Amino acid sequence: MENYTMEGRTYRYYGQEAPLYPFGYGLSYTTFHYRDLVLSPPVLPICANLSVSVVLENTGLWDSEEVVQLYLRWEQSSVPVPRWQLVAFRRVALLAGQENKLFFQVLAEQRAVWGQDWRLEPGTFTLFAGGQQPGQKTRAPSEVLSAQFSVTGTARPLGGC
Hints:
By secondary structure, this protein is mostly beta strands. The protein is 0% helix and 46% strand. The protein has a single domain, classed as Immunoglobulin-like.
């Protein structure tokens, strides 16, 4: 085998074709509302981590749990990358009517791309936060918020930070 790329071999690289049962698939007995997605800082140096916060509210009538998922999308890259990549998730239990502000860290190494080695590259990225993958079609309502951030500096090997 000479071609080690994952293009066309895993659902992350299939292009626009969605998987039948994506990560986080399932139904809930209540509804959730996401708001106030904040990325800090919105412009960060190439080796820095990104802080993320989002507010999750149980807007339904039942106590329930939600799997909050964060996905990262590269807006441009020097090598093929997934459409988006899961970078964090957390199962959160909320009473009916309760809300919770959640905090996450997206590490610099989670933005690394593989060429001949793992590299960090500058550019624009989109972060998605919600109860499902971006663009996922489900019968149960779920929201996915998005915000962009930029990485500045020169490309470097991951070990160079």
